[in-house]
Write a structure and sequence with these properties.
Rossmann fold, 7 strands, binds D-gluconic acid
Amino acid sequence: MSIQLFDLTGKNVLITGSARGLGLAIGTGLAEAGAQFIISDVNAEGAEKSAAELRARGLKATTCNFDVTSDEAVKNAIDKIEKEIGTLDILVNNAGVNLRGALEEMELATWQKVIDINLTAVWRVSKFAAQKMIPRKRGKIINIASLMTFGGRPTTGPYTATKTAIAGLTRAMTVEWAQHNIQINAIGPGYFLTDMTKPLADNPEFDGWVKMRTPAKRWGLPKELVGLAIFYASSASDFVTGQVCYVDGGWTSNL
Ligand code: GCO
């Protein structure tokens, strides 16, 4: 039955930055499709709380919190997952920050922090995950891009630069790792209602602009990313790699 292509039973998925928001929504959906969801977040208490809530619903969830900016922490975490939990089958690089400011005024430290978390850490975690996936000749890596992979807006310079780079890194990973039966794809969320975007959604002018620019005339709901995530995480996408798919209510089709 072709529906079984989307079954994630027996698979382990690690999602960075997944104690809340889009990462938690994606991981919950993958867990509902059968996967064991390994929550990782700088907010360790929040990660434990979310994992407990998912387990209370009968889903498989645990935590492995680590600093994505540290080679040692990432290597040790992935070794620990493989030793104590199981094979790392699916990695979702979701952790990200959006530190805002005018490019001509931005301090190097601000710029560098966004680069370190949104781009370098995606390479770092993927590097150590790929070192496990390559010998097994199978793996799935999902990079969380953004509408800002497609275009920017004032004060989001480093975020736009890193999310644009995620598209290129997704393709770079593909040309090196697809030969090992690893598929690497990116999800580009449009404007979704999360804690991070709540200040924007609560601003009537910004809310009106998003609804005007989005052909679907609304913000996305985090659970609406789950379908694409299951596709990318499952056997349904075994010959799909290097792609960026925007889940954006039609935004990128609009002039
Ligand atoms: C902004 C928002 C965006 C969205 C998201 C869109 O400042 O316009 O924070 O960056 O959150 O990235 O995909």
